[in-house]
Amino acid sequence: MRQFQKFKNKIITKTLFNLYLYYSIEYSCSKSSNEYDNTAETDSIDSESFFSDDDPYEMQALKCIISDDYVQGISVFDKALKIDSKNVFALEWRGKLHHMLNNYDQALADLDKALEINPNNSSALLFRSAVHYDLENYKQALVDLNEALEIDPENVSALEYRGAVHYMLDNNSQALIDLNKALEINPSSAFALKYRGVVHYLLNNYKQAQEDLDMALKIDPEDTSAIACRGAANLSYCNMYQDLYSYNQVLKIDPENVPALICRGNVYQMLGNNDRALLDINKALEIDQDNVSALGIRSIVYRNLEKYEQALTDLNKTLEVDPENASSLENRGRVYQKLSNYNDALADLNKSIEIEPECQFALAFRGDLHRTLGNYKESLTDLEKCLKIDPDNSFALAVRGDVNRELGNYEMALSDLNKSLKIDPEGGLALQARGIVHIHLKEYELALADLNTVLKIYQKDDAPIFAIRGEVYKLLNDYDQAKADLDRALKIDPDNIFALITRSQVYELLNNNNQAKADLNKILEINPDHVSALLDRAFINGKLQDYERVLVDTNRILKINKQNKLALLIRGDAHRRLGNYDLARSDFSDALNIDPRDNKLDDFILAHRGIVFSILKDYENALIDLNRAMKINPKIALWHNKNNELYQLLRETLITLIRTDPQEPSALTLRGFLYVMLGYYENALIEIKKALKGNPHYSYALEIQDELCELRKTQGVNATRFKVFEPIYAAFKASADSHRSLSVSTTSFKPCLSECVKKENRFEYCKPCLDRLNKVTLEAALKFAGKKGLCSQCERIITNPNWCSLCDYDRLKNDFSNWTSGNQEIDEFIRELQEHVEDYQGDVIEWIPYARFENVENIGKGGFSQVSKADWLDGKITKWNNNIGQWERLGKMCVALKIIKNSKDEIKEFLNEAKGYLECRNTIVERNVIRIYGFSQDPSTNNYIIVMQYIEGGNLRNFLSKKKDFDMKEKLSILSNIAHGLVTMHCFTSLVHGDFHPGNIFVDKDNNIFIADLGLCRCASNDFDFKPKHAYVVEYTAPEVLHGGINTMESDIYSFGMIMFEIVTGVMPFANYKYSHDELRKSICQGARPKIPVNIPIAFTILMEKCWDNDPRKRPHAGMIDYWFKDTQKAIELYSMSLMERAEHENKNKSETFNLNGFEKISDYIAENFLFCNVNPVKGNPSPSPST
């Protein structure tokens, strides 16, 4: 009988098809014996002459054969052979009957003797070949069949059986030749058709295989082996349910058909229905308890169910029967790996590969085992061999991807993992590994998506996955969700070290140091030498000022590895705090001597040693160390924020030096250098000049003086104190088409110093920095996303407690047929918006029948639209009420109806205006853009209406005309809100307004600002000629646009400068201009600007002039303006405090970066700290005139 492992790696399923063939051979043999009977009788015996009255024994034997009484048949032939021992016919048939009874030796003895008497007896040759076939002597069977065909080349049975033997010897091409010839002679041979179908299958000719097997079943519909073979062939099309149908057919005919039970069980196993698989396999083993293949498949089922001991029992039994069974060895190796018995696993996989060196599956699993053992070189070797055999082996690709991840080859890892998941989208290992790669690449949202998919697919409590997802949430600053995942991981596996150390970090970030220490203590109970846990605990003890315990932990680390640089730094700092300055200096020196090629942490170590030198009054060495630290990292003190520990430490050192007031040049130079590190350059210059007065040739002082003078020259000299130019950094939100900028604090992100290029007041970022900036946006986004929860219906994670995008969209979709605008384009637009309801702050954009409005009152009219005020009787949708099965609404509410003229004929223009508003609404931080609730249609004109939020206070022009007495603080607040609205458009949605003036800015009763009239909005990345159809408001329009150019973000900034002028001065730009608009347009293009009163603070003058600079490239972007206003508001708030309040404020809020240093006028403070400090304002700009 054919061994499974001989052709296992030729087919897709590894087991199913061959299992059936393995057993169908036995079934075919018993059937073929009858065929041999008939064939032999037909080919070599004349029945008329045989059945004569003179041969009673032969007639008796034939009756026994027909009645299946083979034992009685043999006794009849025994009697015949006693009479004539050379009776060839009796010898042939007695041999055949012995064969039927599995008496192979007696069968061969009889057939050999028959062929000695008559060597050309083709019937005896066929019978003997069948015996050799059952004994797996395929080559000997082939010899007999070749001889039979030499005697009779057209012998159909010999051709059929030789084809079957060639098939068993893997000579599929030769098998096909014989079977084709047999079918040419006898096209209705079900046996030949069945075997040819099998051979076609193995040659990947799936269509021909199906055709042959279908034809065989037409001839013999009850042939269970053909039915099962056709089911196996269906696997080439991955149609397992068709396979089940085929095997069910077999088992209806023969409920105890062992091959069909095994094959059906295997299909259930592959479909993940392990319980049904066990039922079939157990039944097969009840019938045939030593069936190797059934035991092998049951072991796989047990392995799937994580019943590894039972799987091992089955596999041991199969290997007792067949110690060289490569498949069983491979499976046992995998079970041993699951049991962490890696040595036995490796031994089994090695032996399996020795038997079948080209088995891709064994190679892949051994590669995985080597990965687990950390033998990455050996793992990659096995995986390369496997993928050379089958480049699309998804498991091998996943393992290789994970190995490359471990080796830090993230791009290579991603390539393999993406390919693996394209082949098998639900591959758990690939998803998990790719998630971890995304973490390393700081693509946290992508990591989260992969890990969520793993948990969704496998739906089981997997401690490592929850621990990794907890790490991602930690990196996203979502500490509540991180803790929830880590708690869950530790509930499943209380000793999961990764989960414990990550949770300790979360506790530390939440300032829950005791809980953090508890987790670290547990790790160290499990593994007392866990270096990361020891380091973390030492760091926490340092925060708790328990420096003796810091020394205990760091001593232990350095006993494990005396080359641990971070441990030496922490221990040195603990010694410094305990007053052990010599020990501290020694630790810092030892750390610096570890591998000079690796300067990681050297800037901090040098700075700390410099501080120790300064405490020891060794100012020369302190200066050397601090200078070296600055060369490694020029902004070491300011790199993170002014609340970081090193900044505070340097500040304390400076204060100590000032209090002790040493006047020698080295001390003064050190003091000056500390001022430089802290960013106070004017103070630094004073100290350096003092040092040079004491020693005019002091080299360090001269070097610092030169640098400071050069810096002062480039930064300007008008301010009483100057600082390094620090641009406002932008974060970029990745969208489908482009990065979109988001203004964030300077403390959130710093670009690289080598690739990013500073131009004017902004940076051109390199790609790695853009990628990092995306993460800043993500962190900001998550803070605004609202409290997360689960939908009560589908249990899906939602960010809006009132909306589930999955359930609520289905409800809205079900209602599509109940409304229409009468225009297909508008209907599709609304439906698309409803599909993404969560993107619009939970506002359902809907079609609102005009009859649902009351008290419609016209409140304004423009060239292209009319605005009315109305009561909407229903009000907007708030949420779905599960109890009553319908939407809850806000109820009667006041709305604005913007009726777009000619919109019935210009649908695209109407939708463009709506899209402008909605693009701005589609941000998670937007608060300054008017909301849209839906669309309607004016029945009198058929023009379409945008139903919008009604702002009771009116537009900014009206607001300014009514309120004449508001102070600078209120003006700052309004300007800050307008700037923030502009940030929403420019930075979050990349939109240009194009018509920005006070008439399009609304102020509500609480002084909140809303930007309106977004009909001219367009994406900044679009290069088409963006020119509106109506006339500009000239006073607020940038010169390049008046000159025929397109609107840009820079032209919006120009408009903002004019709006700022009007708010600050209370006068419209060019209010006193007495000439025509055409003349004003010409004057603006020639450089005319409004006159700024001299009493306006210089900082405001600078900002306005920068905004309306004639060169658009020199205008600041919205993020910079927004940041400046917020910075100024904080400064004013701090300035308004008393000295005592200010001191208390600084103690309570050490992160505060403002220090007024006794300035008497807030305008002086603003000017000094104003970031656009390289501008030389021209005060008293004259009113424009035609000649200007």
Automatic annotation (TrEMBL):
Taxonomy, superkingdom: Eukaryota
Residue ranges of every copy of the Protein kinase domain listed in the record: 853-1125
GO molecular function: ATP binding; protein kinase activity
Annotated SUPFAM superfamilies: Protein kinase-like (PK-like), TPR-like
Pfam families: PK_Tyr_Ser-Thr, TPR_1, TPR_11, TPR_19, TPR_2, TPR_8
Coiled-coil spans in chain: none
SMART domains documented for this protein: TPR
Annotated TPR repeat ranges: 88-121, 122-155, 156-189, 190-223, 258-291, 292-325, 326-359, 360-393, 394-427, 463-496, 565-598, 603-636, 665-698
Signal peptide: none
Keywords of the record: Repeat, TPR repeat
PANTHER family: TETRATRICOPEPTIDE REPEAT PROTEIN 6, UDP-N-ACETYLGLUCOSAMINE--PEPTIDE N-ACETYLGLUCOSAMINYLTRANSFERASE SPINDLY-RELATED
Name the UniProt record assigns to this protein: Tetratricopeptide repeat protein
Originating organism: Rhizophagus clarus
